[in-house]
Amino acid sequence: MTSSATDQQPTADRDAALIPVGVLGARGRMGTEVVKAVNDADDLELVAMVDDGDWLFNVADAGAQVVVDFTRPDVVMDNIRFCIDNNIHCVVGTTGFDDVKLATIAEWLEAKPDVGVVIAPNFGIGAILLMRFAQEAARFFPSVEVVELHHPNKVDAPSGTAVRTARLVAAARRAAGLPPSPDATADSLPGARGADVEGVPVHAVRLSGLVAHQEVLLGAAGETLTLRHDSFDRASFMPGVLLAVREIGRRPGLTVGIESFLGL
Ligand SMILES: NC(=O)C1=CN([C@@H]2O[C@H](COP(=O)(O)OP(=O)(O)OC[C@H]3O[C@@H](n4cnc5c(N)ncnc54)[C@H](O)[C@@H]3O)[C@@H](O)[C@H]2O)C=CC1
Ligand SMILES: O=C(O)C1=N[C@H](C(=O)O)C[C@H](O)C1
């Protein structure tokens, strides 16, 4: 693979109105799909494809205005730092962000007030709506649990989406003054009750055949509500990714999630 798409595409042929885009993690499951989506978009131009072992400088040398990052939680902060330093907007799908990392990025951006960074745990429109619906429903149900189900090659657990969903639900419960979900478990094998994210149990399934799926289970006396979203194909993330690529130049600073880009 060449690390710069401009190697194959003479500069003279490029239209100045196109947004030049670089993809980090270009050989990965998501990166491959993003490369296709950018190539298929009339208003975008793929100028750099970077994967592990390639020079990150390629995205700057190729003139990328926006970088899309689907790499790994352990390398994404270095990538974002590089892009901010080089005045390149970032659309980040890579997971693993906590409040400390987000605060660090916001601090870096103070020196570059024109640069935009969006960190989105999930670009799927259905997944974003599921998070919103779960947040809305949370205050009406004493019990809530999150179950995420993914392909077995996923490196992190629980998923970034599940962690964000649990945090949003927990915040809604706190705002409504709800006590912790009832749970009389006195004896369990380690892990049986899932991870505790701000009081919300989060369970992670890894299963061949799956792509990315999530359920939020809500319970009250005599009834349950199950909210479920399924990404059967990584194409499901592309409308959200492309929207973010087109918007980020107009959104300086740090944005978490693409909800505001969707008018939510
Ligand atoms: N926000 C969203 O909607 C979605 C987020 N994700 C997240 O995106 C990330 C990537 O997921 P996948 O594509 O499934 O993983 P993957 O393992 O298939 O791809 C990651 C790619 O990044 C490359 N890479 C590693 N270090 C690099 C570096 N320093 N510079 C450039 N490239 C580097 C790897 O060689 C690999 O090709 C994960 O954190 C995953 O959770 C995945 C799907 C949707
Ligand atoms: O690794 C994945 O596949 C996915 N990662 C994201 C996450 O951790 O939430 C988004 C989606 O669930 C797919």
Summary keywords:
Dihydrodipicolinate Reductase, domain 2, binds 1,4-dihydronicotinamide adenine dinucleotide, NADP binding, 2 domains, oxidoreductase, alpha/beta, 264 residues, Rossmann fold, NAD, binds ligand LZUJQKHR
Question: How does this model look, in words?
Answer:
There is one protein chain. With 264 residues, the protein is an alpha/beta fold. The protein folds into 2 domains: 19-119 and 235-261, 3-Layer(aba) Sandwich (Rossmann fold); 125-181 and 194-232, Dihydrodipicolinate Reductase, domain 2 (2-Layer Sandwich). The protein is built from 7 helices and 11 strands. The protein has a 6-stranded parallel β-sheet, with helices on both faces. β1, α1 and β2 form a beta-alpha-beta unit. The radius of gyration is 20 Å and the shape is elongated. Residues 95, 121-122, 150, 154, 159-161, 212 line the site of ligand LZUJQKHR. It comes from Blastococcus xanthinilyticus. InterPro entries: DapB_C, DapB_N, DapB_N_CS, DHDPR_bac, NAD(P)-bd_dom_sf. It holds the Pfam family DapB_N. (S)-2,3,4,5-tetrahydrodipicolinate binds at residues 151, 160-161. The active site is at 150 (proton donor/acceptor), 154 (proton donor).
